[in-house]
Amino acid sequence: MKITFLGTGTSCGVPVMGCRCEVCTSDDPHDRRLRCSALVETDTTRLLIDCGPDFREQMLPQPFRKIDGILVTHSHYDHVGGMDDLRPFCIFGDIDIYADSRAAANIRHNMPYCFVENKYPGVPRVNLVEVEPHVAFTVGDLSVTPLRIMHGAIPILGFRVTPVKSPSPSLVYITDMKSIPLGETAYARDADLLVVNALRFTNPHHSHILVDDAIAFSREVSPRLTLLIHSCHDIGLHEEVNRRLPDGIRLAYDGEVVELG
Questions:
Q1: Is residue 205 classed as helix, strand or coil in its secondary structure?
Q2: CB neighbours of 176 closer than 8 A, spacing ≥ 6?
């Protein structure tokens, strides 16, 4: 199972327009962060996690082949704003979008032309599939179990992804978390790879955890490796941040590929 990080930044991306801080002016490509999204792939299955406004740019360097499904964590624009750019991939057939009822309703509202009976020629051919926490479903040779996450006061989804025939290797992908309801951590335990948001080191945010919170969560659920995403320019330079992080935890970066198993 291969994970490709298409974007690891927050809603503004990095560099932030108009900002002249050391991160936004850095020459290190690791300090450039598009909006959060990832590919999860096997030899026969390709899942996209979120489809933000940078989707077209993110996919241009990737092989042009079928997307078997899209896992939607929530329907904020930085996570779903690129869905109209799915059109070229519909040459391979309709694309199933897996979302909870709240996100599905918002996607229908924002893209009504995709869900009317008589569609305008050329619109994305997508099917909304509503999913619920803890109810596993299968896409190709991958099994997906949603878990409930709180993005401030908004309930959203995280995902645990494993091969259909085995509980390993396992990926747990969580973004935009501020808290996690009691009992949900059981679905995140002992993963081979935990991907979790970490906005910055200081200055608490109303709907995102900070680096120390992400470290504490990682220690609670005990993955083999933890990669931090959804980081803003305030977190600091990529290289310096990684020197501050404990063993087994580091910043992910755009374009990074991780092979599990």
A1: coil
A2: 73, 74, 76, 79, 149, 151, 156, 197, 207, 208, 230
DSSP-derived pairing of the beta strands 193-197 and 171-173? parallel
* Contact between 235 and 201 (Cβ < 8 Å): yes
CB contact burial 146-170 (16+ within 10 A = b; e otherwise): bbbbbbeeeebbbbbbbbeeeeebb
Any bridge partners for residue 112, and if so which?
none
For residue range 18-49, list pLDDT tens digits in order.
Answer: 999 999 999 999 999 999 999 999 999 999 99
Got the DSSP string for 81-131?
TTGGGGGGGGGG--EEEEE-HHHHHHHHHH-GGGSSSSPPTTS--EEEEE-
Residue 30 backbone dihedrals phi, psi, to 5 degrees:
-65, -20
Name every residue whose Cβ is closer than 8 Å to that of residue 34 and which is 6 or more positions away in sequence. Answer: 6, 7, 8, 9, 13, 52, 54, 57, 58, 254
Strands 193-197 and 142-151: unpaired
Q: Whole-structure pTM over 0.85, yes or no?
A: yes
